[in-house]
Amino acid sequence: MTVVHFTTAGTFMLSITGLALHRTHLVSALLCIEGMMLALFSALAVSYQTPIHTNTSLQPIIMLALAACGAGAGLSLLVASTRTHASDHLHNLSLLKC
Amino acid sequence: MLKILLATAMLIPTALLIKPKHLFTTTSAYAMLITFLMLKWFEQPLNHKPHSTNTLMMLDNITTPLTTMSAWILPLMIIASQHHLVTEPVNRKRMFLATCATLQTTLIMTFTTTDLTMFYIMFEMTLVPTLILITRWGSQAERLNAGMYFLFYTLTGSLPLLIAILHLYVSNGHTTMLLLAMQNTLTPNMTMIMWLACMMAFMVKMPLYGLHLWLPKAHVEAPIAGSMILAAVLLKLGGYGIIRMIPLAPQMTQTMYFPFIVLSLWGMIMTSLICLRQTDLKSIIAYSSVSHMGLVIAATLINTPWSTAGAMILMIAHGLTSSLLFCLANTNYERTHTRTLLLTQGLLFILPLMTMWWLVASLMNMALPPTINLLGELMILSSLFNWNTTTIILTATTTLITATYSLYIFITTQRGTPLPNKVLTPTHTREHLLMTLHLVPLTLLITNPALMF
Amino acid sequence: MSPLIWSLLITSLATSTIITMSSHHWLLAWVGLELNTLSILPVIIKSHHPRATEAATKYFLIQAAAAALILLASTLNAWQTGHWSIMHTSAHTTTIITLAILLKLGIAPMHGWYPEVLQGSTMNTALIISTWQKLAPLTLLYLINNNPPTNILLLMGVISALAGGWIGLNQTQTRKIMAFSSIAHMGWLIITLNLSLHLTTTTMMIYMITTTAMFMSLNTTTTKTMTDMGMAWTQSPPLTTMMMITLMSLGGLPPLTGFTPKWLILNNLCHMNLLFPTIILAMASLPSLFFYIRLAYFTTLTTPPNTTNTHHKWRFKPPLIAGLTPATSLAALLLPLMPMMIS
């Protein structure tokens, strides 16, 4: 395992652990998801790009575009749930427990 | 076979489409006609066993009497329910009759199928219409609980049966009952658990003492048609299943049957004693069913020719007798609107002709000499005595207690002083016809008991 | 919402599932999953209600995280093996991906989000989430089936079948009950991945048919809680009868359609000599059946002239949907056609 592999996989693991365990703010959950996406982006961008085979060079861009879409959707959800639930605390999202 | 099955299935659209004026008359006449057509099944000139088969279904001397009895009960159910349904709108009457016809169709298929998987599916299929009968047309809130008990006792008992049947299918490649009984490939490696899985569904359905709690509830809460079909036919599914399953594992039965026979014989005494201290008329009849079915379980498990024949006779006799008793209880209920024994005393002075039916029914229930009840009990008692002499203590005691509680029902309902502030309508011809139709086969079958086994 | 946007969303919802189904490259599969999530979100959040927002947020968090996990696992796979093909996924990667997909499907230990999302969305959206949205993840499970993590699938399936029935006993909202019923059915479904893929298809089809019939009936009668269900008969008495039959079919009572997958799955498990899971699975269907029967009691079995225990509601009489009749009749009567379906 090279340093690049270790760093990207480690970033992803840290982010998903943060998503699973750190449950105060919705924005931090979204940031964790972004962290996962960025780790994946750097994994794709760094470890697969060779000067010889260029057919993989679009992959990180496609991924980043969709991750940005996902981030946009997440942020709009953040706005919507802040408007309806008065804050972005995750424990406020308990209307559906009943 | 198909002419009976299709005709019975066509009862469903008949009940749904016929003019309201002719609804009850047509359906009951039609159902009775099917029963008469079915009587041809008793003619078996070559005396083969099974005497008519095709690839899916068969008739033999165990199937034929039970199927014919279930077909006989259907018109009686329709006749008995008329008063119960008189205030309902016509669509609900249609749905009721359609449910009864569906139940009848599935029962015929359950009894006649040769394939164990098909048997299982049909066995379970009888649950849905019965559940609808109990919970839709029962009258008290407890009926919902009773329906749950009924459904879940039976399903919990029969899911292991499904797995056992699938296991048989995997190891043999087919689940035809006759072939499985002939090949007997299972017996050496058939474990205790397989035997238990095969039998438990029927022990619950029978019901064996200890697994019987669903039955009194279901009987008490069900409407008259539900009680009749439950007592007459659905309990017999259990006996039928045991008779069919035993040839699959004769050796294992020889070691496994002790706890079940002990429970059933002990349960007979216990349930008969319970009958003596019930206050609810339908509950007494239900517990008396459990007691009689204990004899059938013991007889089918020891599986000698005499005991099986006795079990068949007792199943037919008890089916008609308990159905008759439920009908009588229902005639009282329709007039007094209570099932409590204390409130229905002294009916002798109000409905004198009904007292005659009550007397005959009680005598049938306690197995008085010229009835087939006696014949069945005698055959079972003697074969049990032959199996083990000490069983006579339990069986004789039960016979005694059965006589006691039968007389107890008779005396408490008919004698005594009637409560003064009741206005009771006189009996209908319909009700007398109902009792007669129950009693005719019961009394006539003694002239040719060989029809039943 | 303008019809243009609506049709765009529905189209992309359909297309994204098809993209995932037909993909050969892990990145494309991920793109399909991500598009799928993004296009269902406006559909959920359309009714501007706090519950809808909350449901959409929960759905987004779970699906995005699971999709990212799938992409990570496939990247790891590409590091190890050097190619991105879905068909050639190594065993370790398959385990991670399977877990992520089970999260997307809402299988029992990871089912917490599922009932809440269904509760927060409208009946039609709940129908989409519990049927169409299952297809894309399930197709991925099909595609990586060359070395499936058998133990995990079996264990999760049994746990899911047990938990779905057990927790569903405690619910009074019909959408939550349907969610737990869906969890239990998904448990049966992923067990079939170990047995045969034909069986998975059959199970999935029958699950979709029965669930669709049930959700459509619930939608037509605007039944949101069990007490609402007690008044469904005022809107269409024949429909409540069919609802009762559909509920029993969902519970798997023979001879209705719902018995077909149960029978075949138990038979296949017997074939594999897995007696213990067979017995547990068979018994796990009983608690689910209990709450279906309880719902069935409310639909038809306690209607007048018997005493009812629900209040009359003021409702418009809704039009009956045309698809209701075929859906309910398919949900009841498919068992005799079973030999044609599995071959």
UniProtKB/TrEMBL annotation, chain A:
Alphabetized InterPro entries for the sequence: NADH_UbQ_OxRdtase_chain4L/K (IPR001133), NUOK/Mnh_C1-like (IPR039428)
Transmembrane segments: 6-22, 29-49, 61-80
The keyword Membrane is annotated on this UniProt entry: yes
Main location group: mitochondrion
Catalytic activity: a ubiquinone + NADH + 5 H(+)(in) = a ubiquinol + NAD(+) + 4 H(+)(out)
GO MF, one example: oxidoreductase activity, acting on NAD(P)H
Biological process according to GO: ATP synthesis coupled electron transport
One matching Pfam family: Oxidored_q2
GO CC aspect terms: mitochondrial inner membrane; NADH dehydrogenase complex
Location(s) in or outside the cell: Mitochondrion inner membrane; Mitochondrion membrane
Alphabetical keyword list: Electron transport, Membrane, Mitochondrion, Mitochondrion inner membrane, NAD, Respiratory chain, Translocase, Transmembrane, Transmembrane helix, Transport, Ubiquinone
Membrane topology: Multi-pass membrane protein
Entry's EC annotation: 7.1.1.2
Function: Core subunit of the mitochondrial membrane respiratory chain NADH dehydrogenase (Complex I) which catalyzes electron transfer from NADH through the respiratory chain, using ubiquinone as an electron acceptor. Part of the enzyme membrane arm which is embedded in the lipid bilayer and involved in proton translocation.
Annotated family: Belongs to the complex I subunit 4L family.
Protein name: NADH-ubiquinone oxidoreductase chain 4L
Organism taxonomic ancestry: Eukaryota, Metazoa, Chordata, Craniata, Vertebrata
UniProtKB/TrEMBL annotation, chain B:
Gene Ontology CC annotations of this record: mitochondrial membrane
Chain ranges of the NADH:ubiquinone oxidoreductase chain 4 N-terminal domain: 1-110
Reaction equations catalysed: a ubiquinone + NADH + 5 H(+)(in) = a ubiquinol + NAD(+) + 4 H(+)(out)
GO MF annotation terms: NADH dehydrogenase (ubiquinone) activity; NADH dehydrogenase activity; ubiquinone binding
Domain NADH:quinone oxidoreductase/Mrp antiporter transmembrane, residue spans: 114-402
GO biological process: one example: ATP synthesis coupled electron transport
InterPro entries recorded: NADH4_N, NADH_Q_OxRdtase_chainM/4, NADH_UbQ_OxRdtase, ND/Mrp_TM
Compartments where found: Mitochondrion membrane
One Pfam family named in its UniProt record: Oxidored_q5_N
Coiled coil: none
The protein's role, per its UniProt record: Core subunit of the mitochondrial membrane respiratory chain NADH dehydrogenase (Complex I) which catalyzes electron transfer from NADH through the respiratory chain, using ubiquinone as an electron acceptor. Essential for the catalytic activity and assembly of complex I.
UniProt record similarity statement: Belongs to the complex I subunit 4 family.
This protein's name: NADH-ubiquinone oxidoreductase chain 4
Species lineage: Eukaryota, Metazoa, Chordata, Craniata, Vertebrata
TrEMBL record, chain C:
Record's subcellular location: Mitochondrion inner membrane
Transmembrane segments: 26-45, 57-79, 91-114, 126-144, 150-169, 189-216, 236-253, 274-298, 318-338
EC number: 7.1.1.2
GO biological process: mitochondrial electron transport, NADH to ubiquinone
Keywords of this entry: Electron transport, Membrane, Mitochondrion, Mitochondrion inner membrane, NAD, Respiratory chain, Translocase, Transmembrane, Transmembrane helix, Transport, Ubiquinone
UniProt topology in membrane: Multi-pass membrane protein
Gene Ontology CC terms: mitochondrial inner membrane
Top-level class of the enzyme under EC nomenclature: translocase
Pfam families with a match to the protein in the record: NADH_dehy_S2_C, Proton_antipo_M
Primary localisation category: mitochondrion
InterPro entries hit by this protein: Complex_I_Subunit_2, NADH_DH_su2_C, NADH_UbQ_OxRdtase_chain2, ND/Mrp_TM
Catalytic activity field: a ubiquinone + NADH + 5 H(+)(in) = a ubiquinol + NAD(+) + 4 H(+)(out)
Domain NADH:quinone oxidoreductase/Mrp antiporter transmembrane: from-to ranges: 23-282
Location of the NADH dehydrogenase subunit 2 C-terminal domain: 289-342
Function: Core subunit of the mitochondrial membrane respiratory chain NADH dehydrogenase (Complex I) which catalyzes electron transfer from NADH through the respiratory chain, using ubiquinone as an electron acceptor. Essential for the catalytic activity and assembly of complex I.
Name of this protein: NADH-ubiquinone oxidoreductase chain 2
Organism: Gekko japonicus
